[in-house]
Amino acid sequence: MDLPPIVPSQSLANVRYEIRGELMRRAGELKKAGHDIVELNIGNPGLFGFRAPEAMRRAVVENLDHADAYSHQKGIFPAREAVVMQQQERGVLDVTADDVFIGNGCSELIVAALRALLDPGDQVLVPSPDYPLWTAATHLALGQAVHYPCPREAGFVPDVEAVRALITPKTRALVVINPNNPTGAVYPRPVLEALAALAEEHNLVLFSDEIYDRITYDGAEFTPLATIAKGCLTGTFAGLSKVYRACGWRVGWLSFSGPKDHARDYLAAIDKLCALRLCSNVPGQWAVQTALGGYQSIHELTRPGGRLYESRRAVIDGVGRSKYLDLVAPRGALYAFLRVRSDRLGEFSDQRFALDLLEKQHVLITPGRGFNVPYADCFRITLLPEASAMAKVFTRIEAVLDGYAQGTTRRATRGA
To answer: Do 377 and 371 form a contact (C-beta atoms < 8 A)?
Structure first.
């Protein structure tokens, strides 16, 4: 039977998510053929042997009898109250449990927050490089993602004056990702103050993606944006997946601070979207109070001698030994955003390199263009493998780049 094609929605035309795109599908084919793949494309702690803290596991098990029914669409009260308490400890005193939404990870809440806000053609200021879900969710809501530069030469910190120049009457929101994915930048307080001032001046909703809020290195100081932004509605996103190594539990939260009277209809719209999906994963919600109020074991991993710290150092050392790579050392989060030196290799394609590295060395990375940048000489890796494994990864990366330098694979790279 010859059936007409089923055409996907045009709302997906500009949606990209290369972190789990064609390269990952090809990696799956190679795994089925018996190859071991080093998967550096996703910050997935459980894949590399990390475990959620035992106290969180116990909290879930001990409350299973209370987890069979749907919860309130915003989440169970103890979880939302724990988020309130954390904000109060930080000096954010205007958040109540009614201002907190628990979701199936932050991803669901990002989609809901933008879906509830945007009309067709509305603009959202998103950093470049960005975590691509923010751009994708803007397009899904029929909005326009306008990317503001975070220049490499400035340590991937936002160019505030460039942000200002991009604001138009159609701009509805400003997105800040700090600590940053993919670059690992941790933004200085004066930059955050300037961004908050812009949002207040132009009555923008300020979205602060802080999923890596406790993951910093070498004394980098993380400043919660809600402690600065007092004159505009500020939505802070965080969750259990990264700091608490519980990605598969799918528990994230969004808390709103700042003035809210003018935003009641908007907050009600988010509540409606949360009601449509009934509620988020209830068993995992019972871990939130224990996670936020308990011992913060992440600091054991990020201090010198800790696993994340030493893996990060292995990345820095690997770049230092490379003939072809540069790096702005990550100060936070779980990633490094590396640059390939075109002055030593000439013409270069991040997409072709990622495919060659996968096919020849069985290492899966994400090309830089997957993070909505205008250049093609960068790629992202996660810091999650152990330091010894990371050193081996750089040997494989160097082998592919040596091949380019010697001309053995350059022809395949041209035009990619």
So the answer is: no
Closest C-alpha among 281, 285, 384 to residue 46:
384
Counting the structural domains of the chain, the total is: 2
- Determine the 3-state secondary structure of 367 from DSSP: strand
Tell me the pairing of strands 252-257 and 100-103: antiparallel
Query: Which of 334, 409, 32 lies closest to 184, judged by CA?
Result: 334
Residue 346's CB: how many other CB atoms inside 10 A? 12
Domain residues for the domain of 221 are 54-293
Closest-CA residue to 44 (of 113, 90, 105): 105
Report the DSSP beta bridge partners of residue 128.
149
Instruction: Please check whether residues 229 and 171 belong to one and the same domain.
Output: yes
pLDDT digits (tens, 9 = 90+) for 211-258: 999 999 999 999 999 999 999 999 999 999 999 999 999 999 999 999
Q: Output the DSSP codes for 172-188.
A: EEEEEESS-TTT-----
Give the DSSP H or E segment for 193: helix 189-201
> Could you tell me if 266 and 403 lie in one domain?
no
pLDDT in tens, 139-169: 999 999 999 999 999 999 999 999 999 999 9
Residue 1 lies in a domain: no
| CATH number for the domain that contains residue 286 | 3.40.640.10
Q: pTM above 0.70?
A: yes
Question: 363 - beta bridge partners?
Answer: 38
Cross-strand pairs, 38: 363
- CATH number of the domain that residue 311 is part of: 3.90.1150.10
Residue 349 counted as domain residue: yes
Two tokens, residue 87:
């904000």
